[in-house]
Amino acid sequence: MKGQIFEIFGFLILAVAVIGIIVLIRYFLVGSYSKTIMTMAERHVYEEVHAGVNSIFFMTEEKSGRSLMELVGIAAYTGNDTVNFGPGIGDINVVKELEWRMNALYGKGHWHVTVPYPDITPDVQIVMVLDASASMCYAVKEISERMPALIENFIASGKKVSATLYILPGGADCCNGYKLQCSNQFPEKSYFHCRQIEEIESKCITKLARGGNQLGGGIQTDEDYGHGIACAIEAGPVEEWSPLTIKLGIVISDELPEGSECFMNANLGCCPGQDYVEQRSSLEAGIKAAKESKIPIFPIQQIDFTDSSRTQCATICQRCDSPTGVCNSDLTSPQCQCTDLVTQYHQEMASSTGGKAFTLDSVSSTDIIDKINQIISGANPVRKPNLEAGSTVPSLKNTRVVEVLIPVPVSGIYTKAYVTQWA
Amino acid sequence: MKGQLSYIIKPITLVMIIVLLFLLYQSISETSAKEKEAQKNLNVVASTTDVLLILSNSYDCLAYRTNTESIYSNVLDLAKLEEFSKNYANIEPECARSYEFGWRANVYEIGKNSLPTGANWSFGTKEFSTGAALKDSITLSMPVAIRRSEKAITPGKMEIKLVDGELEKIAGYIDWSCELGKRNRMTTSSFSVYIHGIISYDAPSNNLCLTPSGSNKKSCRQMVCQLDFAGLNSPGEHMLSLSYSNGRVAIA
Fold it and tell me: How far, rounded to the nearest angstrom, does the alpha carbon of residue A198 sit from its chain's CA centroid?
């Protein structure tokens, strides 16, 4: 009996062993099959993410035709998600450009992009417009003699600055030996240029169009700095606007745009503000162009009067008659009496465009270069630390991260885009 | 009594052991078959990913290459897309041909609203095995960029349907033999194939067709070489002998 019981036990053990083997075989086979399927599926998803990231950075933005890699690189250079290409193309928001493409390829809420912005001092491009009436004789001398050195100092300190000075129509001889024009008076440098505004008028004709009973098109007078700065912004500096730079506009004048004469009559003094139709039109043209291009304007005004009542115009030798050599002071009562209105115009121009208005101490003041120095020194926009786009990366999900090397223009350095994707 | 009991139990134990061993054998055979099937499924997934990668990364396929020989991965050249749509409307391009499976790719452009813009390009074989002749099928996609010009590179997707079937297997083997024959690397070969239907060949259109059992609907594939082939008129296992000569493959 004992032996038979052992036989039955033996059979039971064998049966359990065989069933165990069958279960184990199935378990391990199914397990390894599932693992392999997962691996293959994960491989496809990884390749899909990689392919998407590769292709997205080569895609181009419609207006500029630049690839997203270039745009992200420029954003990293300027430290700003919005890249300004100047008039024509305008602003391009790099985050928005990334967003719609990533949403199209991976779906909204399934991706995140971060690009650390390196610490870079961006270049500065300046267009300057100089009133060419005789009271600006001091400015021609100051700018010609000191502006190149000022820019060289900035370049030496690591801030690459370039400026183009546009002089309004004029050309009178000054008593200081200069003329109110560019020719042969300004050193031509790679970073500093002087041009007559007439040379660029054809590039900005739409900015100069006027309606109603106003004067015809084109830049009208030697003080028409409203239209002048609009034109300078539209045409850009000699080296053309670059998307990589901080862009500034500077106007230098002691009068209202197109002149402070009431109804163009020097004998009427300074009109009430509302009578200056042409002047306001010029001012508004300048503000409009600057706002469209997001270029701040920094007006610099000189003080023409010598007494507190503002009735005594400064008397200085400015224009020098040829061939007699007789010196004249062209400051007339409208210019002196309109000083407050000019300040008001300048402040409006500055505040509307994000700039700042400056006032010089007096006629023939030498601190014009100091004011320009302040403007350039202050051109340090707040940089963002990085570009962030997409949704917050979930902490409890399986995510895939792809790194892409992004060249940062001009600087010769690279940053990286970290693209995270999840299901 | 003891001895009599032993006479009954021993044969029963023996029979039970034989039954158990049979179950074990059956289980091993079954799992082995399942493993083979699973392996095929894995091959289908892996092949689909591979074809997508080759199409979008190889200059011989659709990847854009600059004048300086730089190749842009996942950036598809519009000119090549147009060319593929025209030249490979019914057959897979050689650059990404899989001789085990058949596939058709569809590339479409995506607009700002995340929807297709309507611009799309298709290439690859148009018809696949159906019914019992169809083993497996998968559709996967991959993001791509479509390069219309230097300043116009737009988002898109490349979708591919890859099919594992008897028609694809036979046609793949014949095309493979043809390609090797063209290169003088193999002139004769033979292989066995199991079909659930009948195979016919239409010489004027150079199409190999499979009609699955119980169906009148033919699925046809364009072949690379002209064939001398009478077809297979009955379902089941067939042994085929192939010989290549002067751009033609004779099948007996």
Answer: 25
Model confidence band, residue A29 (pLDDT cutoffs 50, 70, 90): low
**Is B5 contained in some domain?**
no
Judgement on whether residues B174 and B106 belong to the same structural domain of the protein: no
Nearest to A132 by CA among A97, A164, A162, A165: A165
Same domain, B187 and B99: no
Which residue among B119, B137, B165 closes a domain?
A: B165
Of B34, B36, B45, which to mutate for an interface test with A (greatest number of A Cβ within 10 Å)? B45
B112: nearest Cα among A100, A103, A56: A100
Q: Which two tokens stand for residue A225?
A: 């700095």
Indicate whether B46 and B157 sit together in one domain: yes
Q: Which fold has domain A124-377?
A: Rossmann fold (3.40.50)
Tell me if A44 and B49 make a contact (CB, 8 A cut-off).
yes
Instruction: Give the separation between CA A169 and CA A175, rounded to whole angstroms.
Output: 19
Find the mean pLDDT for residues A89-114.
92
Interface of A with B (CB under 8 A): 1, 3-4, 7-8, 10-11, 14-15, 18-19, 21-22, 25-26, 29, 33, 36-37, 40-41, 43-44, 47-48, 51-52, 54-56, 58-60, 62, 65-67, 100-101, 103-106
- Residue count of chain A: 423
Distance from CA of B97 to the nearest CA of A (A): 19
pTM of the predicted model as reported, rounded to 2 decimal places: 0.69
